[in-house]
Amino acid sequence: MRLGLVLSEVGQGLRRNLSMVVSVVLVTFISLTFVGTAILLQSQITQMKTYWYDRAQVAVYLCTEYTTAGSCDQQAATDDQIAVVEAQLESETLAPFIDAYYFEDQEQAYANFQDQFEGNAIAALVTPDLLPEAFWVNLIDPEQSQILTDALAGLAGVESVVDQRSYLDQIFAILNSASLTAVGIAALMLVAAALLIATTIRLSAFSRRRELGIMRLVGASNRFIQTPFVLEGVVAAIIGSVLAGGAVVAIVHFFVQGYLTQTLPGTSFVTVDDALLVVPVLLLAGGLLAAVASNVAISRYLRV
């Protein structure tokens, strides 16, 4: 098989069907951008889980004069009850599981609440006496929070023992849903790209049907006839894949690292290096998608 002749046929096919080639490039670009974004989003979720779960605290909320949950009966926790809870935290039973803890009184809780909800109308409705005092506990192993719950939940003056990871689970469930949505959209776009590539190849073959007939008459093999068409689809898809890889890297560089890291400095985000690792995956996916779709399309056409 003469490589020069094959490449010449590829070039002619791309020029003759330029509008369809541009369509393939754009659809491949959009679909693989979704694929790359979905991969990085899943990586980001994994990083955030590791980062925040390790920093998640257990809150031991104490009774106020307004609460009835736990052992509370609309009576605020007394100094003796608070001392008992602290003694439990420092006991030989719980101390081996605790990395550190601190006590937050109502004034501190109120100050933190005002900082957290600054600008929100709810901030003006809350007074210090409405907020519970609490012990905030960092565990050596956050997975062992149930030990703290079992030991402290029934003590007098304790309203509840809350593992912050329960809130994180809800957030990550939403992020996972977003990731799955991106994967679903990417899958639909890849199907559309495959169908468009197949249609483009069949139209290209139809426009050169007289040439194909002559090639058959002179004894050209099916492989020789098919190869230029397959390469046309692969070239168009590779261009779209390169653009998708560039878009993914640009999103991480300018938006994630350029904006999010400044807005949320305490959070670990994916880096440009992570995005660069995704680029070969997109190139491989685009090339394989085009090769399979083009080969199937031209093989079916030649059988007609």
From TrEMBL:
<dbReference type="InterPro" id="IPR003838">
    <property type="entry name" value="ABC3_permease_C"/>
</dbReference>
<keyword id="KW-0812">Transmembrane</keyword>
<dbReference type="Pfam" id="PF02687">
    <property type="entry name" value="FtsX"/>
</dbReference>
<protein>
    <recommendedName>
        <fullName>Cell division protein FtsX</fullName>
    </recommendedName>
</protein>
<feature type="domain" description="FtsX extracellular">
    <location>
        <begin position="57"/>
        <end position="161"/>
    </location>
</feature>
<dbReference type="InterPro" id="IPR004513">
    <property type="entry name" value="FtsX"/>
</dbReference>
<keyword id="KW-0132">Cell division</keyword>
<dbReference type="InterPro" id="IPR047929">
    <property type="entry name" value="FtsX_actino"/>
</dbReference>
<feature type="transmembrane region" description="Helical">
    <location>
        <begin position="21"/>
        <end position="41"/>
    </location>
</feature>
<keyword id="KW-0131">Cell cycle</keyword>
<dbReference type="GO" id="GO:0051301">
    <property type="term" value="P:cell division"/>
</dbReference>
<feature type="transmembrane region" description="Helical">
    <location>
        <begin position="224"/>
        <end position="255"/>
    </location>
</feature>
<comment type="function">
    <text>Part of the ABC transporter FtsEX involved in cellular division.</text>
</comment>
<keyword id="KW-0472">Membrane</keyword>
<dbReference type="GO" id="GO:0005886">
    <property type="term" value="C:plasma membrane"/>
</dbReference>
<comment type="subunit">
    <text>Forms a membrane-associated complex with FtsE.</text>
</comment>
<comment type="similarity">
    <text>Belongs to the ABC-4 integral membrane protein family. FtsX subfamily.</text>
</comment>
<feature type="transmembrane region" description="Helical">
    <location>
        <begin position="180"/>
        <end position="203"/>
    </location>
</feature>
<feature type="domain" description="ABC3 transporter permease C-terminal">
    <location>
        <begin position="185"/>
        <end position="296"/>
    </location>
</feature>
<feature type="transmembrane region" description="Helical">
    <location>
        <begin position="275"/>
        <end position="298"/>
    </location>
</feature>
<dbReference type="InterPro" id="IPR040690">
    <property type="entry name" value="FtsX_ECD"/>
</dbReference>
<keyword id="KW-1003">Cell membrane</keyword>
<dbReference type="Pfam" id="PF18075">
    <property type="entry name" value="FtsX_ECD"/>
</dbReference>
<keyword id="KW-1133">Transmembrane helix</keyword>
